[in-house]
Amino acid sequence: MSDATLFTLFFAALGVTVVLLVVALVLAHRHDARGHIKAVVGFVALLLVTLYFAEQLGRRFTFAETPKRVHLGLAFTTAGFLLVPLITGVQHWRGRMRRETHSRLALVFLLLTLSSVVTGVWMLSTRTPLAPAGSAAPAPG
Ligand code: HEM
């Protein structure tokens, strides 16, 4: 797969992931809980697809140290924090948690997601192609 195709698939998957998250929020705001949950399931599935393509990009490019460290720190925190709106959502759905608690924690997740996307684009802008495997490093001098 060419780098151009990989980038296209990555940004397409990222785009669909963000759209599904927005749809999930709109449906929750309209009190369509079932629609909200279906959109959340789609969001999580497409997030995994996006992460797969991101991992492939990470095998083909190196990135400047600071944006890489900032982005990966936020991205892993966001990935771990995803469990919070998922668990609080299920608890609220079962009537064991207030809607406000789920909604507030979901907002924290949304802010983390936004900062991961912004720093991810920053990191990608510093990319340098890795030398293809097996290609000899140029002789010094
Ligand atoms: C990434 C995951 C999730 C996010 C970001 C999220 C976000 C939200 C937000 C922001 C609201 C409040 C909407 C508003 O007041 O405008 C909400 C409501 C709700 N969420 Fe979630 N949620 C997530 C996952 C889940 C899951 C997994 C479930 C259940 C299995 C769930 C069940 C609900 C329910 C029942 C409501 C109330 C809807 C109503 O008013 O009828 N959520 N969610």
Summarize the structure.
By secondary structure, the chain is mainly alpha-helical.
Describe this structure in words.
With about 140 residues, the protein is mainly alpha-helical. About 75% of the residues lie in helices and about 5% in strands. It is built from 5 helices and 2 strands; from the N terminus they run ααβαααβ. It has helices at about 5-30, 35-60, 65-80, 85-95, 100-125, and strands at about 60, 130. It has a two-stranded antiparallel ribbon with strand order 1-2. The radius of gyration is 18 Å and the shape is elongated. The mean pLDDT is about 95. It binds protoporphyrin IX containing FE. Protoporphyrin IX containing FE binds near residues 25 and 29.
The helix/strand class is mainly alpha
* SSE topology string: HHEHHHE
| Order of adjacent strands in the largest pleated sheet | 1-2
- Residue stretches low in confidence (pLDDT < 50, at least 5 long) are none
Shape call? elongated
Percent helix range: over 70%
What's the arrangement of secondary structure elements?
Elements: H1 3-29, H2 33-60, E1 61-62, H3 65-81, H4 83-93, H5 99-124, E2 128-129
Antiparallel strand pairs: 1-2
Helix pairs in contact: 1-2, 3-5, 4-5
Bound molecules: protoporphyrin IX containing FE.
